[in-house]
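A quick aside before the break. I want you to see a complete sequence-to-structure record at least once, exactly as it would be stored in a machine-readable document. Don't worry about memorizing anything.
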Amino acid sequence: MRSLDGSARGTSVGVAPVGDGSMRLAVPGGAPVVVDADALAGIEGEVRPRWVTWSPATLRTLVALGLRPAMCWDVVTVHRLMVGRWRVREADAWAWLHDLDPPAPDAPLDLFTEPPADGQLGPDGAGDPSLALEAAAIQQRRLEPAHLPTARSESTAELLCAELEADGLPMDRSVAESIVAAYVGPRDSEAQERARRDDAVLGHAPPDSRFDLRSPNDVRSLLRRIGIEVPDTRAWRLEAMQDAHPLIPALLAWRKAERIGTAFGYSWLDAHLGADGRLRGEWTGSDGAAGRMTATAGLHNMPAELRPAVQAEPGHVFVRADLGQIEPRVLAAVSGDRALATATADADMYAPVARQLGVDRAVAKVAVLGAMYGQTTGRGAEALRGLERAYPVAMAYLTHAAQQAAAGQDVRTAGGRLVRMGGDAGFDVDEREARRRASARGRYGRNAVVQGAAAELFKMWALLVRARALPIVLCLHDELLVHVPAADAAAAVTAVGECLQEAAARWSPGTPVRFVAEVSVVERWSDAK
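That is the input. The structure line, written in tokens, reads:
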């Protein structure tokens, strides 16, 4: 584009798919033009613009065309951040930015479809990069300056999600299938696999027993038949009774096999593990209020038993980095509590907190986590009162968020994410139920301002690692898995640590809080401690 000649890095360029592998581009004040993938790559290499998209779908198109942009701004993603809603469309963002009524729900286009109301964004507008630029400019004016970095990183996190979907997680199929076989037996029909699992338990039951092992009531009845009475069938309760009867360890083993057989069995591998040895699922940059990246296909809830199958490719290793005690450290930063920030200087911050409170480390940990999650009774209750005396600024920060949420008022994370609470208006509830709901909102609110901020810091860290051209293959809550040539492992370890410190400085400028990560080099995910 001639209008981009001599443009500075970070110049905004609107981009939208045309539908034939080409993209329509626009710059402020210029007419849209259509370019191919080679032209896109040239612009990225020469200008490195901030690509402005309407929605993450366009980011996935860019990645599919082979482009890995450095920077972007996604209108729908930023809208979610600003208004605290998840299921939104381009038209919703446009209407909100222009103070219009919410648009009508999407409907099939036919002769009877009403055209968009005056000022609303129609189907053609959602493919117009010039209008995306206009929407992004309004968002940038409306955002607090302190919240602009979060908007940029949230947008780029969606770009990272598109790359994670395209690249996948390295996995050894033969190892995965052998693990599955150890639990569910050889590949067979689902009905036969299920019957085989059930028989391994019911073989210990009285003759002619007919019980559904997937029904808690049936399992209690089965246990009663062998002389064991339990109020429930929770795993921890059964584990304490393993010596009482051979059926109980068989039942516990069945539960593991059932989970693997139904959610992570042969059909799971067939559906999600490609011929190239990469496990793929769908990724999103935010799961809603908590703000965490999430994925389908078991990428975020894979059983530990299957982790040995996640193996680096020949000549490569994983650099696995896990943030340590991230939420209490984030609390120290966002609250500005200097006393709590001092405790973060220790690699294990619960140790100085325990000394300050005069309690065991385990009690101090329970108290700190209880303060953030709203658990004010039980083992850490007395220590919690000590926290209020020792770290009044941090505790006041949590209390304020809880009171806002309990009253039905929305809260915001330090990075600007709106977390909607809602109240009881319009609901006919008695006083007791109203108190219960308010208490639940309070617990949710006090955690949301910490967990949401932690998610924002994590994503900023991940994106700085990405900017160093280190291939991220998994983001799991507070953990990064980077796949690099073995010869580059030491440099990657150093870079990951440096990126964390840079992320903390960008996320909370001037913070005295120390953030730490446990970093290891492994060939299999299961090797990480």
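Two observations worth writing down. The radius of gyration is 26 Å. The chain is about 50% helix and 10% strand. We'll return to this after the break.
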